[in-house]
Design brief:
This protein is an alpha+beta fold. It folds into 3 domains: 73-145, no CATH class; 151-330, no CATH class; 336-433, no CATH class. Helix content is 39%, strand content 17%. It is built from 15 helices and 15 strands. It has helices spanning 41-58, 60-65, 97-100, 118-121, 156-173, 184-192, 208-217, 282-287, 292-307, 316-332, 338-347, 362-377, 384-394, 405-416, 421-433, and strands at 18-22, 34-39, 78-84, 87-94, 106-107, 114-115, 142-145, 202-204, 223-230, 233-240, 244-252, 262-266, 274-276, 333-334, 401-402. A hairpin with a 3-residue loop joins strand 10 and strand 11. Helix 5 (156-173) crosses helix 6. The structure holds zinc ion. Zinc ion binds next to helix 1.
Length: 435
C-alpha cells in the first residue's frame, strides 16, 4: 500500500494528493523540516486558516526581530509607538525603525502634531512655516514601544499548532505513513481543538527552573523539540523560540521496549543539535567530546521534565510571567548571525552614520559594536566565526548575549571614545557585506 495522510488515512487510491507539510510553519523558522504524508487540501492548506496564521500574525514583531522573512521574502511588519519629545506617534506596517522614522508622515496621538520629512510636509494643505520645528532624529531620544498580546501563548490556536508540530515530527521520526488509531485523540484535537480524553493533551510548562535550563541549552530564537516516553505514554516537549514551553501528550507508545528518546534543535541559522539517545553511549561520548556538555545537560532536563507534574492550563499566571520575562530578555538580546549583521549594515547606512550618546537602543549598539570590532580587529577574509570569537573574548562568555546596563555603557564608550570609529565601522561593514 502506498503512503497515506497521517490525519485521514486517505491516499492516491482515494484520489487524494499528498503534499509536504512544513512541520513548523515557515513563517516561524528559518529552517526547513517537512512531513511528506499530509493530504494537500484538508490537512495542510486548511490548517493555515484554522490556527497557524493567527499565531504567525500575532508574533510579527518577534519574527521581525529574529530576522525570519515571511511571504514575498519580506520581513514581517508590525505596529509600534514612538515616544519622541513627550509625544507618542503610532505607526503601522513598521519593518525597521531605521527605515520608518523620517521617511513617512506620522500624526501624534492628539492628532495635532505631525512628524515627517520636511520635503513631504511642505507639500501638505494648510502648511505654515511658522509652525514647524526641525529635529535631527540622530540627535534625540526615541523610544520604540511594541505591544504584544501575550494571551496568544496560551490560546487554543497555539496549542493546536504545538500538537500539530509534535505529531508530524513524531510521525516523521517513526516513518509513519498512514493514520493510526492510537493517535486518534491528538488528531482529533489538532483538527477540531476539542479534547476527547480527560487528560489534557497540550499543557503549559511553568516550572521556572526547567524553562530557564531549556532556554540556556538552546540558542536564541531556536525551537527545541524533545521526545521522551514516560511509563507507557509518549510525550513531546517544545521550547518555542525559547519564549514558552509546552508538553504534548501523544498517547500510548507504538512498540514496547523501544527507545523513543530523540531531540532536535532548530536554530535561526546553521545546523542545530540532533541527539538520539540510542547512540548516547559511552564509546560515542568519548569520540564526540564536543557535545558532551550539551548531552549531559539535555539528559538532566529531560529527567526533570519527566518528574515534573505539568501545571494545569488554568494556572496561566505563572506561565505568563515567565513568557513576559523571556520576551523582555529577547528584545534586549542578540545572537550574532549573518542575516542580522547584513540587514543591520543595509538598514542603518553604516557608511554615513551619525552616533549620539543619548541613543539608548541596546540592540542597535550591540550590532554596531560587532561591526566596529570586526573592522578594527579582523581582516577582509574574516568569517562569522571570527566575529563570534571576538565578541566572546571582548564582551560575553556565552553564545547568547544578554546586554546588561554595565555592558551596554562599556560598548558605547569603547566606540565613541575611539576617534577613528567611523573608519572601523566602514571597514567592518564592508567585511559583513562580503559574507
Ligand atoms: Zn488528510
Amino acid at each position: 500500500m502506498g503512503n497515506c495522510c497521517i490525519y485521514c488515512g486517505r491516499g492516491e487510491a482515494d484520489g487524494i494528493e499528498l503534499s509536504e507539510s512544513d512541520i513548523i510553519p515557515d513563517g516561524l523558522t528559518n529552517q526547513t523540516i517537512k512531513n511528506k504524508n499530509v493530504c494537500r487540501i484538508d490537512h495542510n492548506n486548511k490548517f493555515s486558516n484554522m490556527f497557524e496564521s493567527k499565531v504567525i500574525e500575532e508574533l510579527a514583531f518577534i519574527r521581525n526581530h529574529l530576522n525570519i522573512k515571511g511571504k514575498g521574502n519580506k520581513y514581517p511588519s508590525y505596529k509600534a509607538k514612538y515616544l519622541i519629545e513627550d509625544r507618542t506617534y503610532s505607526a503601522k506596517n513598521v519593518i525597521s525603525k531605521s527605515t520608518t522614522l523620517g521617511k513617512k508622515i506620522f500624526r501624534d496621538d492628539t492628532g495635532r502634531q505631525l512628524l515627517g520629512p520636511i520635503n513631504q510636509l511642505i507639500r501638505m494643505k494648510n502648511f505654515h512655516e511658522d509652525n514647524i520645528k526641525c529635529v535631527d532624529l540622530n540627535n534625540i531620544e526615541i523610544e520604540e514601544q511594541v505591544e504584544i498580546d501575550i494571551s496568544i501563548f496560551y490560546s487554543i490556536e497555539i496549542k493546536r499548532l504545538m500538537a500539530k508540530i509534535a505529531y508530524e515530527w513524531h510521525c516523521k521520526l517513526e516513518k509513519i505513513n498512514t493514520c493510526l488509531d492510537i493517535y486518534s485523540d491528538i488528531i482529533q484535537f489538532i483538527l477540531t481543538g476539542i479534547e476527547e480524553s480527560e487528560n489534557e493533551l497540550v499543557s503549559l510548562i511553568t516550572d521556572e527552573k526547567v524553562c530557564l535550563e531549556i532556554k540556556e541549552l538552546s540558542r536564541l530564537g531556536s525551537h527545541l523539540l524533545i521526545r521522551n516516553k514516560i511509563n507507557d505514554s509518549l510525550y513531546v516537549y517544545i521550547s518555542f523560540f525559547g519564549l514558552a514551553a509546552y508538553q504534548i501528550n501523544l498517547g500510548n507508545i507504538l512498540e514496547q521496549g523501544k527507545c523513543y528518546f530523540f531531540s532536535q534543535e532548530l536554530p535561526l541559522e546553521g545546523k542545530g543539535n540532533v541527539f538520539d539517545y540510542k547512540i548516547f553511549c559511552f564509546e560515542n561520548l568519548m569520540s564526540d567530546f564536543q557535545n558532551f556538555e550539551y548531552k549531559t545537560r539535555l539528559v538532566m532536563i529531560t529527567n526533570k521534565l519527566a518528574e515534573m507534574e505539568s501545571t494545569k492550563t488554568s494556572n496561566h499566571k505563572k506561565f505568563l510571567e515567565s513568557v513576559k520575562n523571556n520576551l523582555f530578555m529577547l528584545s534586549f538580546s542578540s545572537e550574532l548571525n549573518v542575516k542580522e549583521l547584513k540587514r543591520f549594515v543595509h538598514e542603518f547606512n553604516i557608511d554615513g552614520i551619525k552616533l549620539k550618546r543619548s541613543n539608548k537602543d541596546t540592540w542597535f549598539w550591540f550590532n554596531l559594536f560587532c561591526i566596529y570590532i570586526c573592522g578594527k580587529f579582523l581582516d577582509e577574509n574574516a568569517c562569522l566565526l571570527d566575529i563570534r570569537n571576538l565578541v566572546y573574548e571582548k564582551v560575553s562568555q556565552t553564545s547568547n548575549v544578554d546586554i546588561t546596563d554595565e555592558l551596554f555603557e562599556s560598548i558605547k564608550k569603547q566606540i565613541l571614545d575611539d576617534q577613528d570609529y567611523l573608519e572601523w565601522l566602514r571597514k567592518g561593514a564592508n567585511i559583513v557585506r562580503g559574507f
